[in-house]
Design a protein that fits this description.
Blueprint: E1 2-7, H1 10-15, E2 19-23, H2 30-49, H3 53-59, E3 62-65, E4 68-70, E5 85-89
Length: 95
């Protein structure tokens, strides 16, 4: 099945696009999507940031599934559907 991702900040640089489509198995869950992202982009992300993609998604980014906030690792087992859209944002900090 296809999952649409919209990404910003450093992920846009690593994915070389602000919007990508990721194929995962039917009956896939959020953890499957993250595993697929690690396979495809994990090395590039690690080289660019010195951190693993999976860890940064959990600790430093906000994720939204069809406009609803999701959290890692709590929602890792969340069932995905074909053409779901996930937006990944880095929270804005300031001082």
């Amino acid at each position: 099945m296809q999952i649409k991702l919209k990404v910003y900040s450093i992920l846009r640089e690593v994915f070389e696009s602000s919007s990508i489509v990721v194929e995962i198995a039917e009956e896939g869950i959020l953890a499957d999507l993250i595993t697929e992202l690690e396979k495809k982009y994990g090395n590039a992300f690690l080289l660019k940031t010195g951190r693993t993609l999976a860890q940064v998604l959990k600790d430093r980014f906000d994720l939204f599934l069809n406009r609803q906030r999701i959290r890692l690792p709590e929602d890792s087992r969340l069932q995905l559907k074909n053409n779901d859209e996930i937006v990944i944002l880095q929270p804005v900090g300031g001082g």
